[in-house]
Amino acid sequence: MSIMKMGRRGGRVAALASALVLAGSLAACSSTGGAQQDEPAQGGGGGGERETTMTVAMITHGPAGDTFWDTIRKGAEAAAANDGVDLQYTSDGDATAQATLIQNAVNQGVDAIAVTDPNTGALGSAIQAAVAAGIPVTMFNAGSSDWESLGALSYFGQDEAIAGEAAGARLKEEGAQKVLCVIQAQGQSQLEARCDGVSQGLGTQVERLYINGTDLPSSQASISSQLQADPSIDHVITLGGQFALAAVQAKGDAGSQAKVVTFDNSADVVKAIQAGDVGWAIDQQPYAQGYLAVDSLWMHENAGIVLGGGQPVLTGPAFVDSTNVDATADFAAQGLR
To answer: Number of H helices and number of E strands within the chain?
Structure first.
């Protein structure tokens, strides 16, 4: 089942094309503000900052120093610099703490909020409180099934069920018999949806392995132990690029012949695909997610525009493999996908 055959939601292609045109035209630079303690990701290019027009709080569940989330932040900062937005970035992987960050932004009276929602049970009330306070909200990356019911203007990201089904269908075409789906954080609905989708596309249940995604050595050891315990595992699919690299090392440690594939792309994953260590990656284009989540709020504030026409704006999935990896290498090296 091809990705094109699954493009069944209205406005998806046009919206993604718009995202890429916007992202490609940027001279990215770091925005002002930001409450997170780590250093902000640096964008490319130059150019001066525009006069601040509004304050946007971006609140995510991404861990500090994670390449994927640095790419999202890079896109958000590029949009902020382009639009003259004061971007206040905070994040916390604990859903209860993330909900507190949302409430803090509401209490501070920010003009708009861009937020991820990996756990609606913990975050839904805080997001609804922001909407009730008259603060426009966009959701991105996580929360594709709940953004509309929570009152958000738009959602930017990939539908994890669609992405998972595409991955599972491809694994089936490649002859996979027993697939290990590695989940780096328990309780995050978008990660579970990916493995559910893989099972759906594959036509059989995948085996799930929960690892500590904040500890790569421990993650590698856990994957290796599972491969040693079950030599019948012929494919490992990870849900983040860095875990694919850990899985490559783990299969070597275990003496396994399992093939490694992954969700999410990065410069290191590109190199691993080029070397033949990783079969393919599903790219959800995090730079576009961060850019659009902020830029759409600026457009809504200044022109009343709501992107998506009532539908989510999907930035993926797209396969990166040996047939097209070289074309993505430069952008990945710049942290733009």
So the answer is: 11, 12
